[in-house]
Amino acid sequence: MTNSLRLALLCALLGLPSAARAQAALRLEGTCEKLVIGSQDMSSTCSNVLMNSVSRNRTSFDFSTSDGRTLSFSGNGAQQKATEETDPLQPINAVVLGKDGPPTLAIGACRFSTPAPGRTAITCEANAADGQAFAATFVTVARNAAGAPAAPPAW
Question: Which of 16, 49, 89, 115 is the most interior residue, by most CB within 10 Å?
């Protein structure tokens, strides 16, 4: 690997968000349906809380287990794409195991629907260079805010 490529990767990884310095953080409650780290299926211990944080240009989806372990999927928020009108796609280029663990370069994406009343799912998948796979699915129920107008009827 060339020195300039190493420097570019280091700069990208130093910009990873952490909950302590996040510019915006969203706490979602719902059901964690899947959490896989490598060959370990941790779905049965996955917490029913998902954190989504944004810091500078980085976005992360942070999954946790009942025993305190965490897995964060992180990517450059500016690269987010809309696959359909309601389904944004967030490219992922790093995962972080543990609250203060070092980032691991990984290629993947998180898909989620634009919040609207009803079922909203966030699904993340990524693979590290060493072949380790990471996957998680979280489902929440989005509701209209108190006092907000009801959605218009579908035609």
Answer: 16
Q: Does the reported pTM lie above 0.85?
A: no
- Of 106, 42, 47, 45, which Cα lies nearest the Cα of 74? 106
Residue type for position 38: G
Among all chains, which residue has been given the structure tokens 């993340």? 124
Max CA distance (Å), the chain? 58
**């946790």: which residue's tokens?**
64
Q: At 127, phi and psi to the nearest 5?
A: -130, 130
Radius of gyration (Cα) for the chain, nearest Å? 16
Q: H-helix or E-strand containing 7?
A: helix 3-14
pLDDT tens-digit series, residues 90-128: 899 999 999 888 999 999 999 887 666 677 889 999 999
In 3D space, the residue among 144, 138, 154 whose CA is nearest the CA of residue 31 turns out to be 138
CA atoms within a 13 Å half-sphere pointing along the CA-CB vector of 139: 6
Tokens read off for 13 = 């990884």
Distance CA 50, CA 32 (A): 8
